[in-house]
Fold:
Amino acid sequence: MPERPSENGVRTAVLPGWESLGAREEMVGIRAGDPIFLSPDYRVDAELSRYVQSNRFRAFTAETKRNYAGDIAMLVTALSARGKHWVEATARDLEDYEHWRRFAKQNPKRVGGSKWDRERAAFLHLYTWAEKRAHLIAVNPVEMMAGGGKAKDTRPVNVHWLTPRTWRLWIDVGLRGHGLNGVPEPGWLGRLEDRNTAFVRLLTSSGLRRTEAASLLTFEVPARQVGGGRYVVGRVAAEVTRSKVPRTFYAAAAAIGEVEAYAESSRAWAVRQAQRRGLYERIPGMRLVTQVTRGLKARVHWREPGGTEGVQALDDLTWQERTLLFTEGPDGPEPLWLWLNERGMPFGPHSWEGVFKEANTRCGALIPPERAGLDPHHQFAPYATPHSGRHSFALYMLVVLEYVLDQRYGLSPDERRDYRMLFGDPWFMVQGLLGHASRETTVRHYLSPVRHLQLSHLLSAVDEPAEVPSVDLDMVFAQVARHAEGIQDIESRMGAGR
Structure:
């Protein structure tokens, strides 16, 4: 079997007679990353291939496409077991499938209402295309399901918060290898410790989504000002946001300092190693950036190895295109993609899931033996996901802003009402920080579990005001955690906060 050179560290092999596969795929419109659906007899489903090549499907984000493709694959497999092609499905077939997914006692991995509604959205999108665009079916079976197929027990949001001291514990144990004694465990290597810690600090101090933070280029990291304040201002490019709209973000200056330290240490070392091995010159489609023009719409100019020149708006670059951007350094090409693996190659946004999974495993290993396997609410060992950094940021900012209004400024009720009229309430401020289109979205999706709390009453128990928002609010967060569901508050001694 002839073997082609390695691309991005992945070997590519071509079966004899299939050397023209790439050209043939391009001829029929197949693009890299398009899902391929195979029937039980290993034939490609032509109609599903048309669907994933449609403009409606390709307009989804990479994550949505991956999720929808997986949901659809499970459905068509179940239908095939019934002897039906997916275009032959009736409302009864989908209702039976829902029953199996959600309620059948024989199914050991049943899903909840929220997960089912996501799957239903995938099916609805597919069958709407099949009915209105491809004209493969006369009636949309999803729309004919009882109640439209929507779950009645859908949770409005899957929130997962950690208080500041719980994040500190998770970072120390999960990313820095600390044990119960507060020092690294014997044998801890600390590989990429500075990178992982800097990334998590950035998430929790800015409210950025995983892909937004993971897609930053080196020149997009906001600069700290000499003698500046506690926060610095940055900008997220449109294409890497969920709404496809650029926005401003604020990050803690200390977190940006950790990002800078990573860039100057382990990242710089990884880049030098990759340059010595000549890895960057072998990346297909590498673009050497020659200029980034500033203005109302920044544009990136580049030159490819063959001499072809290109230009594109910075806001329009996908995260995949960003991994191809390089700059000419003193020792050769250097990636502009901020986060790199040990080989000096771009670390993809989805790869961060593995970092969090390993950190959660290390934290879980420290659960007291008598509680091993019996900690469903994570009271004895912290558990985090990339998105819980965003949730936690929202909680932190809400409490801090309420604290500043009530304690630092000592406003009377009338003065506070006037302040809200001029500048907006903390919910409105957090809405802007998260980039939500409306205040209602912020309340519904992030802060609804604590809407019932009278924060001003809780915070009135704090005697000494803090001069600036800081981690000195641990006891305030402990009070909030005791009165609300879904908030992890764990002390450094690996016991539930009291």
The radius of gyration is 26 Å. Residues 1-11, 448-471, 494-498 have pLDDT under 50 and may be disordered. The longest strand covers residues 287-293.
